[in-house]
Each structure stands twice: as C-alpha cells, then as structure tokens.
C-alpha cells in the first residue's frame, strides 16, 4: 500500500528551530523545522514512549524530554543513548506555503 500525502499545516505554523505535533491519519507526527527544511518523525521515543514533540531540536537532531535520547530527524537514527532503536520518519513535502506528510 502506498502512503498518501496529507496536508498537515502551514509552513508558518512550525518556525525555524521548533517542533510541532500534528495528528495525521491517527498517528501523532512531530514536524521539525531545521534551518528552513522540514522533517516529520514519530512523536514517540523508542526508549520508553517519551513525547518527542515536546523535546528540543539540537541542530538536525531531536532530544527526548524524558531521558535525553537523541535521534537524527532525517534518518531516524539514534545519535545518543539511552534509546537504541531508530524512530520512524515520514516523507514531508513543501507545497507552496503548506506542509504535506505521507504516513
Ligand atoms: S523515553 Fe525517550 S529517552 Fe527515555
């Protein structure tokens, strides 16, 4: 099955250096703005279910507010323990002023 893109927000809703959580097809997706580029990841830390969307962006990584694991927002890879499993990432496209995510 191919994922369909859904419009999730206006680009202005996610300022540079910030993360916002949106519900897309019943999934909580954290949209990250890294220097004007947008990335979409699961709002769920693989360590113990922490709310990643409430974490901080540190360059191109998102830091879990619960125990400090960090993940690359582009690839989902773990860059800092205690998490060991990557997070899910989703295609995120800019279309004009809008952001579309495929879940
Ligand atoms: S729940 Fe995210 S680091 Fe523990």
**According to CATH, what is the topology?**
Rieske Iron-sulfur Protein
| Tally of DSSP β-strands | 11
The unique ligands bound to this protein are: FE2/S2 (inorganic) cluster
Calculate the mean pLDDT score and round it: 96
Through-space gap between termini: 11 Å
Largest sheet geometry:
4 strands, antiparallel
Instruction: Provide the CATH architecture.
Output: 3-layer Sandwich
What does this molecule look like?
The protein has no helices and eleven strands. The chain is mainly β. A hairpin with a 6-residue loop joins strand 6 and strand 7. It has one domain: 3-layer Sandwich (Rieske Iron-sulfur Protein), CATH 2.102.10. The chain binds FE2/S2 (inorganic) cluster. FE2/S2 (inorganic) cluster binds next to loops. FE2/S2 (inorganic) cluster (FES) binds next to loops.
In brief, what are we looking at here?
With 103 residues, this protein is an all-beta fold.
Provide tags for this entry.
11 strands, Rieske Iron-sulfur Protein, four-stranded antiparallel β-sheet, binds FE2/S2 (inorganic) cluster, globular, mainly beta, 0% helix, 103 residues
Question: How are the secondary structure elements laid out?
Answer:
Layout: E1 5-10, E2 19-24, E3 27-34, E4 37-42, E5 56-58, E6 61-63, E7 70-72, E8 78-80, E9 89-90, E10 92-95, E11 98-102
Antiparallel strand pairs: 1-11, 2-3, 3-4, 4-9, 5-6, 6-7, 7-8, 10-11
The chain binds FE2/S2 (inorganic) cluster (FES).
Residues 45, 47-50, 64, 66-69, 82-83 line the site of FE2/S2 (inorganic) cluster (FES).
